[in-house]
C-alpha cells in the first residue's frame, strides 16, 4: 500500500537548494544559508565549536536558560567566557553590551538569544548589533523563537551567524533548522584547527562539499519529510505575508498580557517592549499545579509551567505558529481562570484580550 508521506520520490539537489534560497529570502540575507537536518541545537553548537577556540574570548549574553548552555559550550571549546547576565524578567540593553565590550577589548565572539520563549523576553538585536559591529567581534544570534514572530534582519543588524528553527512561529517540526553564515564567519571557521570537520557538527563540511561544489550533489541523503515541512512552512508564511504573520504574533502577545492583567496575574516580563511576541510568561504561585489543572480541563491549551525552579512561579502561554490566534488566547485565559485558586470570572479578561487584539492589528 502506498503512503503519501512514506513513498516519496528522492529530494533532488535542485529542490534542496531552492529550500535554502527560501530561507535566505525569509531572512532577507545574501549570506550563505546552511540547512541543518536536526533540532536547532545542532547548528548552534556547530557555530560555537567552529567559532570559539583556545585563546579566544567570548561575550555570552545570558537572558535565559539557553545563554547558560552557550556559555558551557564556549568553555568546552577552550574560549575564555565573559558572561553578561541580566534578570530573566528583563532584556539586556545595547549599553550593557557596549560596556562589556569596552571593558574587555579582547572579546572576539558574541553570543545572544533574540527571543527567549522559556522566559518570555526579547532582546534589542539591532542596537546590540551596532555595538558588536563597532567592536569588530563575530556575532552569533539564536533566532529560533523570533523568526516569523518579530523583525529579523541579520544582514542589516551585522549578525554573522543567525540560527533559526521551524518549530516555533514558523509552525513546523523541531527536526529541521538553518543558519546563515557570513564571509567573516567562514574565514574564522577555516582558520580554526579545532573547528569540527568530518563531523555532523561541521558547517565547513557543508561549505566544502555542497556550497563550494556548486550545490549539484548532496553530501548525504536529506531528511526528506523535515525538508518538505520546512518548505511548506515558508509557503504558508508567504501566502499570509510575513508582515501579517509577525503582526498576528504581536497581537497574540498584547491580548494575552491584557487578559492576564484583567485576571489579576502579573506578567513575568514587566515592560511591554521587552516581552517576546512568541510566548507570554506570567507570575503564578504554584504554577505547575495550576497548569496541570488547566490542561486537565483543556488539554489543547498551549500552556506550560516554567522549567526548573521557575515551575513554582511561572506559567507560559505559547502563542506561536498556528496558536497565535485570538481564539487560542481566549482559550488559554479561560483555562487559566478556571484553574486559579480564586477562580475569577473570565469575562473581563476575555473582553480585555479582544480589545487588545483589535488595537494591536489596527
Radius of gyration: 21 Å
Structural class based on helices, strands and sheet pairing: alpha/beta
Question: Topology as H/E string?
Answer: HEHEHEHEEEHEEEHHHHEEHEEHH
Could you name the ranges where pLDDT drops below 50 across 5 or more consecutive residues?
none
Across the major sheet, the strand order is 1-9-8-7-4-2-3
CATH fold title of the largest domain: Aspartate Aminotransferase, domain 2
| Residue share in helix | 40-55%
Q: What is the strand content? A: 5-15%
Q: If helices are DSSP runs of H or I spanning 4 or more residues, what is the number of helices?
A: 12
CATH superfamily caption of the largest domain: Type I PLP-dependent aspartate aminotransferase-like (Major domain)
How many β strands by DSSP? 13
Per CATH, the class of the largest domain reads Alpha Beta
Terminal residue distance = 51 Å
Oligomer designation: single chain
- Give the overall pLDDT as a whole number: 96
Question: Could you say what the CATH architecture of the largest domain is?
Answer: 3-Layer(aba) Sandwich
Q: How many structurally independent domains?
A: 2
Biggest sheet character:
7 strands, mixed
Shape: globular
Describe it.
This protein is α/β, with parallel strands linked by helices and 362 residues long. The protein has two domains: 226 residues, Aspartate Aminotransferase, domain 2 (3-Layer(aba) Sandwich); 120 residues, Aspartate Aminotransferase, domain 1 (Alpha-Beta Complex). The chain is built from twelve helices and 13 strands. The strands form three sheets. A seven-stranded mixed beta sheet has the order 1-9-8-7-4-2-3, with helices on both faces. A hairpin with a 4-residue loop joins strand 5 and strand 6. The longest helix has 21 residues. The chain is globular and about 60 Å long. The N and C termini lie far apart (51 Å). The relative contact order is 0.13.
